[in-house]
Amino acid sequence: MKDTFEERLTRAMNLRASGEYEAVLTLMIELAGERPESAFVQYQAAAIHDRLGLEKAAVPYYEKSLALGLSDPEDEANAYLGLGSTYRTLGDYENARRVLMCGRGKFPSHRSFDVFLAMTLHNVGEHTEAMRLLLLLIADTSGDAEVVAYKRAIAFYAENIDRIWPGDDDSD
């Protein structure tokens, strides 16, 4: 007797928890084909492809999961982050920026979007904005006492990273 869909999905989740990713991949491809209308299953298929370094194959699963609408906000945020990051690693910086900005707008408390967006901005030569995002992230989230002591200065310089102040010398 063949296992039910739910039993196979549970097995896939258990295999993933135990690190048996290749077996999960096989199961998730099968399950995603059987339930193309399940955003959760499409997302899980994307995530396992991504985990195994199969970024190009992960994209359609991520896209479909987001188009279908994930019910769990954490899954949705992770799908946006996964798709944006995947586009970036594939060199598709325009789509990476679009997806990461969308995810960042929907989930502003997920500061990991700032990190991946900064990497994307770096890739397209927008170094000042990339640095600004990272400096603000550091200022806002660091618990390191030395960084906290300079939080205001770091936040100020994040907005003025390219500014040069005149010196106090007596020349000319």
UniProtKB/TrEMBL annotation:
Pfam families for the chain: TPR_5 (PF12688)
Protein name, entry field: Tetratrico peptide repeat-containing protein
Domain of life: Bacteria
Residue ranges of every copy of the Tetratrico peptide repeat group domain listed in the record: 41-160
Organism: Paraburkholderia phenazinium
